[in-house]
Automatic annotation (TrEMBL):
One of its GO terms (cellular component) is cytoplasmic microtubule. It is found in: Cytoplasm, Cytoskeleton, Phragmoplast; Cytoplasm, Cytoskeleton, Spindle. It comes from Citrus sinensis. Residues 132-141 have a biased composition (Basic and acidic residues). Residues 132-166 are annotated as: Disordered. Belongs to the MAPRE family. Residues 13-115 form the Calponin-homology (CH) domain. GO terms for biological process: cell division; protein localization to microtubule; regulation of microtubule polymerization or depolymerization; spindle assembly; thigmotropism. This is EB1 C-terminal domain-containing protein.
């Protein structure tokens, strides 16, 4: 059974149209793009068709739009993988972003795996539409039960507090407290977002720096001055350049000097 499939396997050469046809025919869906399967619900039902009864379809949300809801679907999928002892790492953070390539590769692997079970023969007694509807009804009924229980608890609490007397915190004052708490939460989240943006900017700057240095080294190795030098001397020179480049990178505000300005241009370019 194919669980670990190499990147050069024929499974990863299956095209988008073939994958979409495979999904639409088996699950009776009408997907037109690979990204529409990013929620993880399609993958859950494919395994539900392959192993009937293993996937708790009432936990699968086919209407998932937010990353939070999609992650819940992938948690269900991971639980199924654990039950079936499928050793496949799910890159949830990439899949929920809806990136076409990541979702394409995961669906290619899934098709290869499903085809390896029972020779890829489809269960004729499986009704995909009925399974989706049944799962949706169970999920909605359970959600309504939770809401009704919470409402009953709140009503009992409010009734009990009414018998004892008025609450110590009046309505306007309580609203102010809630408003203050929400303002603090917004401020904390804003600060966190700012810190994340700064981290991303720093990482992008560092990435561009190292890429530029690699390009500079490539140009340097192509110069006529280094063609006749021994390999050890050339390597030592490149290491020295890299160390000085790091120094100037972290102190570029104090030393705005281009270290590679002395490199002669290749007359052949």
């Amino acid at each position: 059974m194919a669980t670990n499939i190499g990147m050069m396997d024929s499974a990863y050469f299956v095209g988008r149209n073939e994958l979409l046809t495979w999904i639409n025919n088996r699950l009776q869906l009408h997907l037109s793009r690979i990204e529409e399967a990013a929620s993880g619900a399609v993958q859950c039902q494919m395994l539900d068709m392959t192993y009937p009864g293993v996937v708790p379809m009432h936990k699968v949300n086919f209407d998932a739009k937010t990353e939070y809801d999609m992650i819940q679907n992938y948690k269900v999928l991971q639980d199924v993988f654990n039950k079936l002892k499928i050793e496949k790492h799910i890159e949830v953070n990439k899949l929920v972003k809806g990136r076409p390539l990541d979702n394409l590769e995961f669906l290619q692997w899934l098709k290869r795996y499903c085809d390896s079970v029972n020779g890829g023969i489809m269960n004729e007694n499986y009704n995909p539409v009925e399974r989706r509807c049944k799962g949706g009804k169970e999920r909605s009924s359970r959600g309504s039960q939770k809401i009704s229980k919470s409402l009953q608890t709140n009503n009992m609490h409010n009734a009990g507090s009414g018998d004892i007397g008025h609450s110590k915190i009046s309505g306007p004052r309580q609203a102010k407290i809630y408003g203050a708490n929400s303002a603090q939460e917004v401020q904390a989240l804003s600060k966190e977002i700012t810190d994340l943006k700064l981290s991303v900017d720093l990482l992008e700057k560092e990435r561009d720096f190292y890429f530029a240095k690699l390009r500079d080294i490539e140009i340097l190795c192509q110069t006529p001055e280094l063609e006749n030098l021994p390999v050890r001397i050339s390597g030592l020179l490149i290491l020295i350049i890299l160390h000085f480049s790091l120094f100037f990178f972290f102190w570029n505000d104090l030393f705005p000097v281009s270290l590679f300005a002395w490199i002669p241009k290749d007359p052949r370019n």
